[in-house]
Protein: Coenzyme A biosynthesis bifunctional protein CoaBC
Amino acid sequence: FQPKPLRGMKVMITAGPTFERIDAVRGITNQSSGKMGFSLARAARDAGAEVTLIAGPVSLPTPYGVKRIDVESANDMLNAVNGSISVQDVFIGVAAVADYHPLQQFEHKLKKDANILQVDLAPNPDILANVASLPRPPFCVGFAAESQNLLDFAEQKRRKKRLPLLAANLVQTAFNSDSNELILLDDKGRHPLPKSDKLSQARLLVQHIGKMMRAEPPT
Ligand code: PMT
Structure:
């Protein structure tokens, strides 16, 4: 039993949605509440880590002792991550980052008329993939929310981004709820967690990360 499995480590976590602005009031976003990422920040802090939490637009209080950086868009989130990723030991991507942003952004509120409004979307940078492909990456943990073929799609994401660990969850039960039922995927296989509140899930995930990191050969 290791009460502080991440003692002395620096952990960076992304949480919540991103908001991709179209005009002064409108934008593209999703239903992530930030609860899973904020629970992980608490769990990592309680496990002894120094935590940086990079949060999209959510209405949650900052966990005590956690450094929080608020961002709006995926590009803002990437910049905030890059600001101190080189000193992190662990990176956990919990954020539901928008995959696209409007190519053109309007400063003022667009006026409506009877015509079809076309909004061209350009792809956003993949923050987790960027971090995982650094020359000296931190221990990277991904999340995947899927509405079907959960384990296949999640394992594909883990392999594509070359992640040692990924937490898979169902869109229908994970987004904006107080509980979750994560399945952890690593090179050893699948590790389903029993359904519970998000903080309990987060504590189990943090324990798993601690075990995997201790098993790594010294560099
Ligand atoms: O916030 P809650 O309401 O508590 O909900 C939690 C959650 C459902 C959002 C969370 O548990 C979760 O599953 N987050 C990942 C959502 C997802 O499906 O992400 P993705 O498949 O688009 O991305 C896979 C991984 O790459 C994620 O770790 C994501 O943070 C990261 N990613 C994705 C795209 C991108 N441009 N940059 C990224 O870093």
Remarks:
- The pocket of PMT is lined by residues 14, 16, 32-37, 74, 93-97, 124, 126-128, 142-145, 157, 169, 174-176 (CB under 6 Å).
- The chain has one domain: 10-99+119-215.
